[in-house]
């Protein structure tokens, strides 16, 4: 038993070394990626369930790593948060999105609203609001065209520190959406305490519709509650017509998911907008 314990320990330290090296390489590459502009923004359409038109998009970052290909955000956003790179990366995303959205509103869809994912570290950055204000002005984009998506985890921080940030962002005129709704804790009390404009029902609920009765009941209840509290609802992860019809009948306003479109590069999204002109 002693022998195997020691072997396990050796195995474990080797494994740790490999992971540390991997992590170090990732860090180095990420810093380079920012300088060399290797990031891209993809856009996934949001569809109005009432008019079937594209009313918005969610901006989703990708990393085009030379010689490797497209790397999804789950593989580099968490580590970027840990090493502090999320602030410059997040600012880069906001700048890209504001410029692009301004162009699209002018040439294709005047009421387009684009949402950007904001990590808790960015939300805690005291310069966030001023940066957004400047970026909107530089891009000539009205604040109502920008939405920030935050997660429930953020709301577990100190309310005295968080509320002023919410207030200054909302005074600017941008809207705030609560992402992955239903997967965190004590969600309901947060809805009372923070000024939130939109709820995004997590795709884990939508995924089980219509087979799973609990998901059906919960989704109904979330939509009714949000509407009663004056918040709009976006369903994410909509993959088929049954889900879309269920959501329309339940009073949901917007949907997003593979059923309509995957996230697309700017050029691909623009093609969709070109066919979206007529309202
Ligand atoms: P999220 O905010 O929950 O984004 C939705 C994710 O669901 C996206 O994955 C999208 O591609 C995927 N998705 C969309 N429709 C469907 C569907 O019908 N079925 C299924 N199974 N999946 C669908 P993606 O692009 O890989 O992004 C993963 C996560 O990375 C995002 O989750 C978000 O938390 C984070 N992220 C992406 N871009 C940014 C960014 O610019 N900043 C920050 N801080 N986080 C980002
Ligand atoms: Ca999101
Ligand atoms: Ca989400
Ligand atoms: Ca998520």
TrEMBL record:
Record-annotated EAL domain positions: 23-277
Highest taxon above the source species: Bacteria
Protein name: EAL domain-containing protein
Organism the protein comes from: Undibacterium oligocarboniphilum
Location of this fragment in the whole protein: 591 to 869 of 869
């Amino acid at each position: 038993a002693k022998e195997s314990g020691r072997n396990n320990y050796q195995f474990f330290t080797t494994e740790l070394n490999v992971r540390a090296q991997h992590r170090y390489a990732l860090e180095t590459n990420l810093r380079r990626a920012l300088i060399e502009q290797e990031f891209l923004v993809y856009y996934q359409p949001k569809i109005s369930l009432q008019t079937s038109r594209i009313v918005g998009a969610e901006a989703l970052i990708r990393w085009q790593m030379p010689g490797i290909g497209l790397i999804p955000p789950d593989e580099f956003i968490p580590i970027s948060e840990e090493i502090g790179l999320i602030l410059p990366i997040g600012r880069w995303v906001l700048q890209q999105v504001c410029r692009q959205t301004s162009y699209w509103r002018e040439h294709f869809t005047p009421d387009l609203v684009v949402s950007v994912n904001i990590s808790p570290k960015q939300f805690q950055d005291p310069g966030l609001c001023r940066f957004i204000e400047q970026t909107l002005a530089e891009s000539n984009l009205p604040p109502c065209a920008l939405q920030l998506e935050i997660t429930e985890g953020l709301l577990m921080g100190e309310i005295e520190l968080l509320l002023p940030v919410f207030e200054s962002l909302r005074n600017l005129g941008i809207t705030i959406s609560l992402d992955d709704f239903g997967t965190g804790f004590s969600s309901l009390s947060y809805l009372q305490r923070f000024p939130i404009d939109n709820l995004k029902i997590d795709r884990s609920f939508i995924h089980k519709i219509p087979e799973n009765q609990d998901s059906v009941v919960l989704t109904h209840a979330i939509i009714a509650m949000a509407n009663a509290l004056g918040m709009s609802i976006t369903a994410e992860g909509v993959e088929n017509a049954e889900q879309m019809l269920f959501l329309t009948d339940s009073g949901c306003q917007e949907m997003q998911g593979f059923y309509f479109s995957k996230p697309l590069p700017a050029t691909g999204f623009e093609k969709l907008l070109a066919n979206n002109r007529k309202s």
